[in-house]
Amino acid sequence: MKRKIIKQGHNTLTITLPSKWVKSFNLSPGDEIELKEQENGLYISTDKKDQPLATEINITGLDIPTIWKYFMAAYREGYDEIKISFNPTDTYESPYKFFNSHAVDIKYGKKSRKHTPYELIQDITNRFIGFETVEHHNNYCIIKDMAHITSKEFDLSLRRVFLLIQQMSEEMTQAIKDNTPELLKHTHDIDINVDKFHDYCIRVLNKTSFKEKRKTNLTFSILFLSEMLADEYKNVAYHIMEDMKGKKLGNLLPLSEMVSEQINKFYTLFYNFDRTKLVELSNKDLEIHFYLPELYKKKPGKKSELNDDELEIFNHFRRISKYINALIELRIEMEF
Prior knowledge:
Layout: E1 6-8, E2 12-14, H1 19-24, E3 34-38, E4 41-45, E5 54-58, H2 64-76, E6 81-85, H3 117-125, E7 131-136, E8 140-145, H4 151-178, H5 187-207, H6 213-243, H7 253-271, H8 275-296, H9 308-333
Parallel strand pairs: 5-6
Antiparallel strand pairs: 1-2, 3-4, 6-8, 7-8
Helix pairs in contact: 4-5, 4-6, 4-7, 5-6, 6-9, 7-8, 7-9, 8-9
């Protein structure tokens, strides 16, 4: 919408506020509003609250991956209250068995007991920071946000995303080094925590404007790539546990160590930016880039010593390395 600037007196310029916005927050003459400068714009806000932002989701007839998508969309968009309608006679598998529809879950087997709609909703609700079920009826539940969102909580949650990814990379390298794939049994649980803090950060960004608009957009991209990176580690864990049973893991160690070092250096760069660290990361990227062709190279008259399962795992490590490079580019943009 557009507003004309009105001159009042010699040095004062004013604009009118949209009546719909004023009414929605029940503002009156004399009330205070907050103005924040954001690059070439002003952000106007008020502490007065309207009715909680509410929506309704009917899960009847939906499969579990689709139910997850609806929950995540409502949570990330900043809804304060969600009414979940359901058929009370329906039954469901464990929601975490289908958390990622493109990958088979490691921890939750095919033979799990059936869940009632309320049990399903409760399990999913527990995955979202601040959400609690406050009402339970025969064919619907009410979920509300019971948390107070602050910029400090956002910063802690973003850092937590990075630390969890570091944990995944370090445990992955240790499992490969010791040839103990059983150490990776809880990689899926770490990935769920990454998703939990990722979604909370997205929710905060959508509900507040404590960041500059341009940097907010960059942060959205950083969060998205970080979640994708964590998913790749979960895929590696799955391949090691399911496809590399009884096999030596030594061929995977050098690349796992290099990628883990790449992640640790990025974390340091993100919170303490300097050009020297950038050069170190660039050198590490070159080391990985030139290491892989040598690894794939076949000896004259002989097949590669790598099996198909190892090659698949290397492809996941390469994707992780590419995500790190994309994250570095976004971090550099934040400096401008």
